[in-house]
Design a protein that fits this description.
single chain; about 425 residues; alpha+beta; 4-stranded antiparallel beta sheet; 3-stranded mixed beta sheet; 13 helices; 17 strands; about 25% helix; globular
Length: about 425
């Protein structure tokens, strides 16, 4: 593995943490493209809650893909037999299509202390909230004492996240202090069998590409089988074949690709520029960095150069996404911050009580915080932090009231 090309620590009121830009091995195999991009300084990614393309695709194409993302599926189109929502937009729609919402999913399982193993129930840890037939309605069975809700995730700007080079995540991890280094999970890229990348999507970093993420959600959240995930989920371990009227795979129009194209073309969540310009928000930004929040909630990351190829060429970074500076306030790595949900998915058993650092961009559009949505104020969310983040929480709690309010003002500007 080659060392990262550049690692810069930037600490100020407007740029609080790690700015990392690296070039991948794939990019180095394309010297003309890489040389052209290296000569260009990175630029800010476009931001906005405006339902407009980031430039990756034309607006009419973006609008068409957004319409597919918003489309409500029916039983005749393959919905179910168990599902949580009828469209992507049901879970990703605040304040515009692709953002977050108040909707949650339920996951359960059992932890065996003798073997230190998490054991998912028959049919998997996801307990669907809806079914097309009452006989299939899933229930939490006895013995599954591990129970958690998961809030819907924002997907705006995720094309830029997909365009972050794996080496960038390794550089971020290497710059974190001992005891706070995030865990990297390598996740399979479903559209490129045998390939994997650093996981970055989902609460457990279970996916590394937006097409894989879309295929997973189409099956597990809407019950629609597709080319990448062609088999129906079981209902608590029971076959659903007799209740499934549509032959598999059910995604005949390749909606999975449209979902991925839409997310790749979205702008990043914008800041409240009026609030961000206030003295309190700027002071809060500095304090946010000083007490250690920015160690995991990384303020600035630079995407890979345009032309960089991943997963056997299934994703090539376009000019609209390449060499762009984003401000996600996340390292996208797994951490034990004292709020782990006890669920194991793609990673090994060490991920059981770890969660992906929640990106804070767009935070002002939320009123339920943390992975389970159980914190109803930002202050209570901060005070829930423990584990790797314990000393950060203690520093926050020790601040004078005015400085704590300044940090909250800064967060509400995101």
């Amino acid at each position: 593995m080659k060392a990262p090309t550049k690692v810069v620590t930037c600490v100020s009121a407007s740029c609080l943490a790690l700015t990392v830009g690296v070039h991948s091995q794939q990019a180095q195999q394309q010297p003309q493209t890489q040389t052209a991009n290296r000569a260009q300084a990175p630029v800010e990614a476009p931001a906005g809650f405006d339902n407009e393309t980031n430039g990756m695709i034309a607006q009419p194409v973006f609008d068409t893909d957004r319409g597919i993302f918003e489309e409500r599926d029916t039983i005749a189109e393959g919905l179910g037999p168990m599902y949580n929502a009828q469209s992507c937009a049901e879970c990703h729609q605040n304040p515009v299509t692709g953002a977050t919402s108040q909707l949650t999913e339920l996951r359960v399982g059992h932890y065996d202390p003798r073997s230190s193993q998490f054991i998912a129930p028959p049919g998997g840890s996801l307990i669907h909230s809806r079914a097309i037939d009452a006989a299939l309605m899933e229930q939490v069975q006895p013995g599954n004492e591990v129970r958690t809700f998961r809030t819907s995730l924002n997907t705006l700007g995720d094309g830029f996240v997909e365009a972050i080079d794996d080496f960038t995540f390794h550089a971020i991890q290497a710059n974190q202090p001992r005891g706070m280094q995030g865990q990297i999970v390598m996740s399979p890229v479903l559209e490129a069998p045998g390939s994997s990348r650093v996981g970055r999507f989902g609460w457990k970093d279970q996916h590394a590409s937006l097409k894989s993420f879309s295929a997973d959600a189409y099956l597990n959240e809407m019950g629609i089988t597709n080319a990448l995930m062609p088999n129906e989920d079981a209902s608590s371990g029971r076959s659903v074949a007799e209740f499934d009227p549509v032959p598999d795979p059910e995604d005949h129009d390749d909606d999975v690709s449209a979902f991925a194209a839409f997310m790749r073309a979205t702008k990043v969540p914008p800041r409240d520029i009026v609030l961000a310009a206030t003295a309190d928000a700027q002071a809060g930004a500095t304090l946010f960095s000083q007490i250690g929040c920015a160690t995991c909630h990384v303020a600035s990351i630079t995407t890979a150069p345009a032309g960089t190829s991943y997963a056997g060429g299934t994703f090539v970074v376009p000019a609209a996404l390449g060499n762009k500076i984003i401000h996600p306030y996340s390292d996208f790595l797994l951490h034990d911050a004292g709020t782990g949900d006890g669920i194991v998915q793609n990673g090994d058993q060490t991920t059981r009580n770890k969660m992906r650092t929640a990106p804070l961009w767009g935070l002002r559009t939320h009123n339920r915080f943390m992975h389970d949505g159980e914190s109803l104020t930002l202050a209570s969310a901060i005070l829930r932090h423990a584990g790797e983040a314990l000393f950060v929480k203690l520093r926050y709690a020790a601040l004078p009231d005015q400085q704590r309010l300044q940090i909250l003002t800064f967060l509400l500007s995101l």
